[in-house]
Amino acid sequence: MCLFEQPESEIMRRLQHRRVDPETGIEYNVEIKAPEDPAILARLIALPDDAEATIKSRLQAYLHQQHHIEEAYKDMLFTVQADQPIEQVTEVISDVILNPIF
Q1: Do the beta carbons of residue 32 and residue 14 sit within 8 Å?
Q2: 3-state helix, strand, coil in the chain (%, to 5)
Q3: Which pLDDT score, from 0 to 100, does residue 32 have?
Q4: CA distances from 39 to 23, 35, 36, 46, 75 (A)
Q5: Residue 102: is its pLDDT beyond 70?
Q6: CATH homologous superfamily of domain 2-98?
Q7: Alpha helices in 1-102 (DSSP H)
Q8: Half-sphere CA count of 33, side-chain side, radius 13 A
Q9: For residue 24, is pLDDT > 90?
Q10: What is the overall mean pLDDT for the chain?
């Protein structure tokens, strides 16, 4: 089991810029990787769950339970710093999958 860790500011940045295409259901992050097609970009909508207050509430609920989650899975948990480039995160996860430590 993988535990992704990143600063709260990064969580907020990523989620507040998330949009969904109502026609296809595909999610985009308009800051990190927006769609190249202007027609798709124009129809993207923000989800209510991505409002700042909702994100903070969900994050607080997770942080309140985090210790219990980590304790329950301590024998099979590894941590990944998720605020790295996706290629680095993928490399860490792939390495653990190919060379399990459990």
Answers
A1: yes
A2: 55, 15, 30
A3: 87
A4: 11, 9, 9, 16, 48
A5: no
A6: P-loop containing nucleotide triphosphate hydrolases (3.40.50.300)
A7: 8-16, 38-43, 52-72, 86-98
A8: 5
A9: yes
A10: 92
